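chain below, 130 aa
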Amino acid sequence: MKRLQRTLAVVLSLCFANAALVHPTHAGLIPTEQLARSATPEQGASHARLAAALERDDVRAELERQGVDPALARERIAALTDEEAARLAEQIDSAPAGGIIEAILLVFFVLLLTDILGLTKVFPFTRSVR
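prediction:
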């Protein structure tokens, strides 16, 4: 059992380290005009685009393969703020072919982290720190 826990810890550590290295961030000033253009009513469309992505058979199959209930994923997407939904939709759009898998893994790790923190109980194989 300890060997399994150690292996799982190593794998998760590598995953989180890889996630930190793969996505560099760039900070900069945003002109007021660009901010005004980005605050259009199309922000609500991000939720619809994410929900439509969840309706795809391949996405649903991958979620189920990862142990995530698609209904729960829909609830989580509905709970996102407009800014978070727009950012996630932008990441999916800018991802290379097959990038939807990365988005699914992102959702999986968010759900896993919230399970470990004791905020949710999605996965039966996690223990809460609370």
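Residues 44-130 form one domain. Helices lie at 2-22, 32-38, 44-54, 57-65, 70-79, 82-94, 100-116.
thats it, cya
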